[in-house]
């Protein structure tokens, strides 16, 4: 099993374990089902691309760290694009300013979703991983009043 670790621009650590390929390169791009190219904060793919390629055509799990500047695009535009990408089985949107996440999982051609809080476990069955959501935020502290909003 390989362990990949991504440090986002917000310093949020996202740990992804996979039996398959993965990427943490800031220049790695993901092709979506509607011919757009996206730069997700993290992803796990089922195969490695060409050694010179920076475009991944088969992401299985995609991570985005939500920020005020990108949240609307991440939640609506990218969610629809990733839904149109058959290889994407799970789309995880991680909160930047509190412990929490919204997880979309593929069911047929659509998504189901789950809202995770600090006590939740993040299940990524596509890559054989279940971990406490709080583990993604290890080493970070949030003001209590903001975390409770």
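^ structure tokens above, recovered residues below v
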């Amino acid at each position: 099993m390989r362990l990949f670790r991504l440090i986002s621009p917000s310093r949020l650590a996202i740990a992804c374990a996979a039996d398959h390929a993965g990427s943490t390169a800031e220049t790695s791009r993901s092709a979506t089902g509607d011919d757009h190219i996206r730069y997700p904060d993290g992803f796990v793919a089922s195969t490695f691309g060409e050694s010179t390629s920076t475009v991944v055509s088969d992401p299985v799990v995609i991570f985005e760290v939500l920020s005020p500047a990108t949240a609307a695009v991440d939640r609506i535009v990218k969610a629809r694009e990733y839904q149109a990408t058959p290889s994407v089985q799970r789309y995880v949107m991680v909160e930047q300013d509190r412990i929490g996440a919204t997880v979309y999982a593929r069911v047929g051609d659509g998504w189901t979703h789950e809202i995770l809080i600090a006590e939740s476990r993040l299940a990524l069955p596509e890559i054989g991983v279940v971990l406490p959501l709080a583990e993604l935020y290890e080493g970070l502290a949030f003001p209590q009043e903001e975390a409770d909003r």
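The first strand starts at residue 2 and ends at 7.
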